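pasting for ref
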Amino acid sequence: MRYIKGTLEYGILFPKCLTEDSIELIVYYDADWCGDKQDRKSTSGYIFKFMNASISWCAKRQPVVALSTCES
């Protein structure tokens, strides 16, 4: 909460929408299976884009070894 309180003047600027049809939310998600050759752990990540502006993203290594591409 202290971080939010100290950064109230920051924000994300979005272009003005002319119609509701031009508003779109796009999500990309990907994961690799056994991407790290040393510990065999997978990495996954995602990005949310609202009107072509990135609003949320994350990438992390999985805590356990995946035994299939479905698990990763």
